[in-house]
Amino acid sequence: MSESPLPNSPSAAPPWKSVAAWLCLLLPLVLGLGLDLLSKHLAFEAPPTGLVTGYTIEEGRPGVESIEARPLPNVLHLHAHVNYGAVFGIGQGQRVIFVVVSAFAIGLLAFLFARSGRQRLYQFLLGLLFAGVLGNLYDRVVFGYVRDMIYAFPNLHWSDLWKALPQMEVFPWIFNVADSLLCTGVGAMFVYTTFRKAPAPNHLAPAEVATK
To answer: Which domain does 154 fall in, by range?
Structure first.
């Protein structure tokens, strides 16, 4: 009676030949990228001003208006904003560097997928990371900046939680769906690789595994 090959054994089918592996990768990639680009389009091309209590228009960068909407006044604002840097506004104006880094990240993710064996959750997380990288890379290549619009916990200051704390916003950054996918994917990947149990070692030779 033969046994199924181990996930990382020489006889295991590589991920690029596995329908299940491709589904685990492409499902979060396609859905995540689609949601990111759709949300950016709605925020910048068709802001939902008719669904909110009010909005303000401020001077923006290169012809892009900064529009703020308040669907949930104390929890969430939709603030269309352009970012010429990376997450948290780091590295403003370094477009070429971020494009190169994104291309390198895509290559690294493809390599990790090729080495992922039958780790379906791992492949799903790689799909999330792919979607996040591609979403912001699209913006940098097409527009020269990244479109952000999610402003969580607006105007909430540390002093509101405890008066002894400084008068600083708890989360002053504006982000997008791609940023959320990247942060979620990186955090989940760290937890997965830290706590995942390694498969039991196989002491049999590949030929013995195939004939056992």
So the answer is: 15-58+69-196
Active site residue 36: no
Whether residue 160 lies in the annotated active site: no
Domain-embedded: residue 9: no
State how far the Cα of 73 lies from the Cα of 58, in Å rounded to an integer.
Answer: 19
Report which residue type is found at 156.
Answer: L
Q: How many CB atoms lie within 10 A of CB 52?
A: 16
Per-residue pLDDT of the chain (212 residues; tens, 9 = 90+): 444 444 454 446 789 899 999 999 999 999 999 999 998 888 777 655 443 333 344 444 433 445 555 555 667 777 777 888 766 556 565 778 889 999 999 999 999 999 999 999 999 999 999 999 999 999 999 988 898 888 888 777 778 778 888 878 887 788 999 999 999 999 999 999 998 876 555 544 444 444 44
Find the catalytic residue in 36, 139, 148, 160: 148
Per the structure, how many domains does the chain have? 1
Q: Specify if 87 maps to a domain.
A: yes
Question: What are the backbone angles phi and psi of residue 183, rounded to the nearest 5°?
Answer: -65, -45
- CA torsion sign for 137, 143, 145, 151 is negative
Residue 150 lies in a domain: yes
